[in-house]
C-alpha cells in the first residue's frame, strides 16, 4: 500500500515534461526519469536517510472548463515505513506544486488539500494524510499475521534528524579543522527480545561524534607481544550508550549542525575516554544482532 498525492490544474491540463524536468534538476536526490507504457517516472532516493518516493506523469485528457482537476501528475509514498519518509517528502512535493502553479489533493478520496501549497501547514497536512493510510496498512498487516518491526516515533525521528545532517556535520568539522568520525547509526534487532534498537560504532577509541543511539560498538585493534613478536587482534564489544556517556562525559564537548547539538570526542581527549574502557560492562555477542534497513521499520503501533 502507498499514499497517492494528486496534482490539480485548471481543467486538468497536464504540465509538460520540460517543466517537471526543470524542477527535478534542482534536487540532486532525483534520478533521471524513465518512461514505460506511456508513464513517465522520477525516483527520489536519498542515500543519507534511505528515503525514497516516486513522481509519475500519466497521460490524461483535459476536461472542459477551468475547475481544478487531476492533471496526470501524481506522487506516491509507500506505507509501512517510518513517518520520516513522509516528513522528508512533504516539502519537496509541495515545492513541485508551487513551482508549476498546481493544487494538490488526496489521491484516495479526490479531496483537495485545505492548506495552500506555499504554506508551512501543507507539510503537516501531507504527513497527516500519509499517517492515516499508514495506520490502516499497519492494522491490515497485523491482521494478516505479518511480522513488523516497531520502533518509537521519537527514536526514528532522532535517527532521521541526525542522518540528514551527517554531511553538514562533516563539513562543519572539516572547516574547523577537527578530525573526527561522523558515524552512521544502524537499526538492529536486539539479542533475545527481537526489539528494534539503534547502534553506532566507535572505532579504535578515536575522535568521534556520538549521536543518539541505544548501543555503542567498541571496535578496536589490540596489539600484543608473543615470543618477541608483535601481533594485532580485533576486539569487538558493545554496551549501552548511556553507560559509556556516564564514563566519558568529562571528555566530551558539543558541536552544532543546523540547530541540533551533538556530542563530540576530540583527538586531544581520546586518552581520557580510552582509560575508562576497563570500567565498562562490555558484551561480546555481536553476532546476535540482526541488521534492519530503515524502510523495514514502522513507527505507528497497531
Outline:
By secondary structure, the chain is of the alpha+beta class. It has seven helices and 16 strands.
Shape: elongated
Give me the count of strands. Answer: 16
Helix content range of the residues, please?
A: 25-40%
Order of helices and strands: EHEEEEHEHEHHEEEEEHEEHEE
Q: Structural class of the helices, strands and pairings? A: alpha+beta
- In whole angstroms, the N-to-C terminal distance is 16 Å
Beta-strand content bin: 25-35%
Counted up, domains total 2
Mean pLDDT: 92
Any low-confidence stretches, pLDDT <50, length ≥5? none
Biggest β-sheet: strands ordered side by side in the sheet: 2-3-4-5-1-6
Describe this structure in words.
- With 302 residues, the protein is α+β, with helices and mostly antiparallel strands.
- The protein has two domains: 2-143, 2-Layer Sandwich (Cell Division Protein Zipa, Chain: A), CATH 3.30.1400; 153-298, no CATH class.
- It is built from seven helices and 16 strands.
- The strands form four sheets. Strands 2-3-4-5-1-6 form a six-stranded antiparallel beta sheet. Strands 12-11-9-8-15 form a five-stranded mixed beta sheet.
- Helix 2 packs across helix 3.
- The model has no long low-confidence stretch (mean pLDDT 92).
